Amino acid sequence: MQLDLFNPKTKTGELFVFPLDRRNALVRKTAFDLRSKEFHQAKRFWQRHVAEIRKELASKRVRPEQVQHEIEAYTRAVSHELNLQRVLRAQPDGAA
Fold first, then answer.
1. I want to staple 57 with a disulfide (CB 3.0 to 4.6 A). Which of 19, 24, 45, 62 is the partner?
2. Could you tell me the sign of the dihedral formed by the alpha carbons of 86, 92, 36, 73, in that order?
3. 71 with 20: CB under 8 angstroms?
4. Of 18, 14, 17, 20, which Cα lies nearest the Cα of 70?
5. Model's pTM, two decimal places?
6. Any idea of the CA torsion for 68, 70, 76, 81, to the nearest 10 degrees?
């Protein structure tokens, strides 16, 4: 079956973005940035960061419920990374 790109009645496809919680470099950098800030600075950073992500996903026409799902999964991934970094720092010589 061939896709008819010029038929206005053709349904549009659904966009799937690469999951935020799987973007390891982004998760690690965000955790590092949060860890290196004072509480109030980290809170403002996180609020701006999440707002930027929401804006980026909305510009790609990702459905609001999918955006919320991505933000929640990303938040869990960053939290996990923060905890992991804290545990590794507590180990002698950083050994796990």
1. 62
2. negative
3. yes
4. 20
5. 0.76
6. -140
